[in-house]
């Protein structure tokens, strides 16, 4: 009977340790998830700031020349692809920032009359354009080696 008390104490300690380990692992994983979410939010905000800066550049180019048709704008933060749609004096600029993980698209509509300032109709962020996710490549160096007798 005395030996059974030792087993009960040992099993109790093991169960409490397992529960404590599970709680610690859960807290650690939640912390990692929160950190990843914060990084993603920061990168998304940076992509939006890039897109808005490029849209401002495109507006200036549109004001300076009625022949402006868009193209790429490269800034220190990254590159944007600008598409210009014209319907008479009504213009729409669609600007997408192109970065590795995050893209943001800004659509700006305005009226452009020669000799007068542009008249901004709308400025809005539209749905982000999906980017391709890098696909893991096969690396035979990381395969486990199984040794056996033939």
Could you explain the architecture of this structure?
A five-stranded antiparallel sheet has the order 1-2-3-4-5, with helices on one face. Strand 1 and strand 2 form a beta hairpin. It is built from one helix and five strands. The protein has one domain (2-126): GSPII I/J protein-like (Pantoate--beta-alanine Ligase, Chain: A,domain 2, 2-Layer Sandwich). 42% of the residues lie in helices and 27% in strands. The protein has one helix spanning 2-64, and strands spanning 70-75, 78-87, 90-98, 105-111, 119-126. It starts with a helix and ends in a 24-residue tail after the last strand. It is an alpha+beta fold and 150 residues long. The chain is rod-shaped and about 100 Å long.
Give the key terms:
about 25% strand; alpha+beta; rod-shaped; Pantoate--beta-alanine Ligase, Chain: A,domain 2; about 150 residues; disordered C terminus; five-stranded antiparallel β-sheet
Count of discrete structural domains: 1
Based on CA atoms alone, the radius of gyration comes out at 29 Å
- How many H/I helices? 1
> Quick one: how many beta strands?
5
Which sequence of strands runs across the widest sheet? 1-2-3-4-5
| CATH class category name | Alpha Beta
* Portion in helices: 40-55%
Shape: rod-shaped
CATH topology: Pantoate--beta-alanine Ligase, Chain: A,domain 2
Strand content: 25-35%
| Helix and strand sequence | HEEEEE
Q: What value does the average pLDDT take?
A: 80
- CATH architecture assignment name: 2-Layer Sandwich
């Amino acid at each position: 009977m005395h030996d059974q008390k030792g087993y009960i104490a040992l099993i109790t300690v093991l169960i409490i340790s397992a529960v404590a380990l599970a709680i610690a692992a859960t807290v650690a994983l939640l912390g990692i998830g929160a950190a990843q979410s914060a990084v993603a939010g920061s990168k998304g905000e940076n992509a939006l700031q890039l897109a808005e800066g490029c849209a401002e550049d495109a507006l200036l180019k549109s004001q300076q020349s009625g022949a402006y048709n868009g193209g790429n704008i490269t800034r220190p933060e990254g590159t944007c692809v600008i598409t210009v749609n014209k319907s008479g004096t009504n213009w729409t600029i669609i600007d997408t920032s192109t970065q590795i993980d995050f893209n943001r698209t800004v659509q700006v509509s305005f009226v452009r009359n020669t000799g007068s300032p542009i008249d901004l109709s709308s400025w809005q962020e539209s749905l982000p354009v999906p980017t391709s996710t890098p696909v893991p490549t096969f690396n035979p160096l990381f395969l486990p080696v199984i040794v056996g007798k033939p």
